[in-house]
From TrEMBL:
The lineage of its organism: Archaea, Methanobacteriati, Methanobacteriota, Stenosarchaea group, Halobacteria. Pfam families: CBS. This is CBS domain-containing protein. SUPFAM superfamilies: CBS-domain pair. Residues 1-60 form the CBS domain. It comes from Haloferax profundi. Keywords: CBS domain.
Amino acid sequence: APPLSVAADLPVSDLIDRLQEENQELAMVRDPDTDEVIGLVTASDAFESITGQLYDPLDLGA
């Protein structure tokens, strides 16, 4: 499957829905005006933006 690509102005709740629908953990973030890739977002990033920092024993410095 091609990598998931989302606009930078997509609401977080919609991002989470898209990640779940596409069974993806990662999405490329694109500038909505230029369509240029400006970053990456993970499912964890999206959840943490809502819930706060999640404990992950694999994170460095955890």
